[in-house]
Specification:
alpha+beta
Length: 87
């Protein structure tokens, strides 16, 4: 695998029941208690995936983990055959 810089474009992927879901967009919303959290809009179509800089992708992943308990992965491209970046 090649070196990855902060500006490298990557895709955020959530895997559930061996199915890949690709992050399309995010939104900061309030839960019923009034707390802000990051909401993700996911799609199983790789063509709907939005690429983010590696730096931003890691920040988004940290927020998903902290605020939603969601573990996500990163890949250089979207698609079922895309190699996930090991971290």
């Amino acid at each position: 695998m090649s070196d990855i810089s902060a500006s490298t474009r990557v895709h955020i992927i959530f895997i559930h029941d061996d199915r890949r879901w690709y992050l399309n967009r995010t939104e900061t919303v309030r839960n019923p208690k009034g707390d802000l959290y990051l909401k993700g809009y996911w799609n199983d179509d790789p063509a709907q995936s939005t690429a983010h800089s590696y730096e931003i992708a890691n920040l988004v992943r940290e927020r998903f983990k902290r605020e939603n308990g969601l573990t996500t992965r990163i890949a250089l491209q979207a698609g079922d055959s895309a190699e996930l970046i090991q971290e």
